[in-house]
TrEMBL record:
GTP binds at residues 228-233, 247-253, 272-275. Residues 218-357 form the TrmE-type G domain. InterPro entries: G_TrmE, GTP-bd, GTP-bd_TrmE_N, GTPase_MnmE, MnmE_dom2, MnmE_helical, P-loop_NTPase, Small_GTP-bd. It is an enzyme of class 3 (hydrolase). The lineage of its organism: Bacteria, Pseudomonadati, Pseudomonadota, Alphaproteobacteria, Acetobacterales. HAMAP family: GTPase_MnmE (MF_00379). GO terms for molecular function: GTP binding; GTPase activity; metal ion binding. (6S)-5-formyl-5,6,7,8-tetrahydrofolate binds at R28, E84, R123, K431. Homodimer. Heterotetramer of two MnmE and two MnmG subunits. It comes from Neokomagataea tanensis. Its cofactor is K(+). This is tRNA modification GTPase MnmE.
């Protein structure tokens, strides 16, 4: 949460690279007094956006010989004057430079404060700022590509386009309210209602697209089946890790074991669960209850069965897999694997890849990526639905204005101050 004692015009600084020893550490600063602070540290300011080698001094002592970059606003990340110091990454050097910056009137930045200032100064909107956070956190190729696309403004353009169309609808609605005696043709209201309906339909289709959330959070793949059917062995085989205990004793797995796995550039959350069976054991019964919970929440279920089993369907998203085909072959038209010999594992990975592609592929339109986006679009669509059902023009106009406000809150163009602390508090200090 923003500190009320801090001013948005303060010069802030933070380490933009990781803590610990290394070859280079980048210290960044931003604020209206950056020129004065940088001149106090290294003397004459370097040319804008040109790397220069400078000796950094404080109290007559040389702190480091560093590469200095000067970024006068508004052509900077935050839109303010700012600079970067590329230091030798020794802890003593970093601490000494931080002490000097503080002595010259700068202060340590709060989490996300650089990006927050960028939003406040119009260098990016809230959706792009969230994409920067996602880009930093990206673990897979799909997450990286999605975050870059959103940082480039793909989702912002979609929502801004809706907002612009809605502004035109609001203007027409206001005309109908303000000039009731002008004998406007019926086609004006008919076209207005059609535009509202089209916007609501597009938002509804957008809400049905879960690609962005799946790629950002990861696809949940649950391995389920009877005890001792090979679930833990499959978890170990797919992940390439000895993550789960494997024994011949049924009921070894009592609780869910989860680990992350990347398939075709997409993050998967693999969950091994307790064997499904009737039991009087209280601990095992709790494990089974949790297993069934994970099955219901899963995006994909690998439902394993052994030779001779006739399993019931657990989930519409399940893939039926017959295990231990080194003992007995799988039925025709059913995937079969043996974790003992490795037979069938390539075919299973291919089937899993196909399911993943089906979940993450879709229309060319950019998908929403966060619960905040989903809630905002749901709210806007709700107001549009109310507008379509309004009996009075004045009521319809109010519902349309509320829908426009909901879209504006998504990008940060209206009423966003209350959102800033929550969003940027999740950032690292140097962003």
């Amino acid at each position: 949460m923003a500190n009320p004692d801090f001013n948005d015009s303060d010069v802030i600084f933070a380490l933009a690279t990781g803590a610990g020893r290394g070859a280079i550490a980048v210290m960044r600063a931003s604020g209206t007094g950056s020129a004065r602070v940088l001149a106090s540290l290294c003397g004459v300011l370097p040319e804008p956006r040109r790397a220069s080698l400078r000796r950094l001094r404080h109290d007559g002592e040389v702190l480091d010989e560093a590469v200095v970059l000067w970024f006068p606003g508004p052509r900077s990340y935050t839109g303010e004057d700012g600079f970067e110091l590329h230091l030798h990454a020794g802890p003593a050097i970093i601490a000494g430079v931080a002490d000097a910056l503080t002595a010259f009137g700068a202060r340590p930045a709060e989490p996300g404060e650089f990006t927050r200032r960028s939003v406040q100064n119009g260098r990016m909107d809230l959706l792009q700022a969230e994409a920067i956070s996602d880009l930093i956190e990206a673990e897979t190729e799909s997450q990286r590509k999605q975050a870059l696309r959103q940082a480039d403004g793909a989702l912002s353009k979609l929502y801004d386009g809706w907002a612009e169309r809605l502004r035109i609808v609001v203007a027409h609605q206001e005309a109908l309210i303000d000039f009731p005696d002008e004998d406007l043709p019926d086609s004006v209201e008919a076209e207005l209602l059609a535009n509202i309906w089209n916007l609501q339909a597009e938002m509804g289709e957008h809400l049905q697209d879960h690609r962005g959330e799946l790629m950002r959070a990861g696809i949940t793949v649950v391995i389920a089946g009877a005890p001792n059917v090979g679930k833990s062995s499959l978890l170990n085989a797919l992940s390439g890790m000895d993550a789960a205990i494997v024994t011949h004793r049924a009921g070894t797995t009592r609780d869910a074991i989860a680990l992350d796995w990347v398939l075709d550039g997409v993050k998967l959350r693999l969950i091994d669960t307790a064997g499904l069976r009737e039991t009087d054991d209280e601990i095992e019964a709790e494990g089974i209850r949790r297993a069934l919970f994970h099955v219901k929440q899963a995006d994909i279920v690998l439902h394993l069965s052994g030779p001779g089993d006739v399993p019931e369907i657990l989930n519409e998203a399940e893939v039926s897999v017959r295990t231990k085909i080194d003992v007995a072959p799988a039925p025709e038209n059913m995937l079969g694997i043996s974790t003992h010999t490795g037979a069938g594992l390539s075919a299973l990975r291919a089937a899993l890849s196909e399911r993943v592609r089906a979940l993450t592929a879709g229309a060319a339109a950019p998908p929403l990526t966060r619960a905040r986006h989903r809630a905002g679009i749901q709210e806007a669509a709700h107001y549009l639905e109310r507008a379509l059902g309004a009996d009075w023009p004045e009521l319809r106009g109010e519902e349309l204005r509320l829908a426009l406000r909901s879209l504006g809150r998504l990008t940060g163009h209206v009423d966003v101050e209350s959102l800033l602390d929550a969003i940027f508090g999740q950032f690292c200090i140097g962003k």
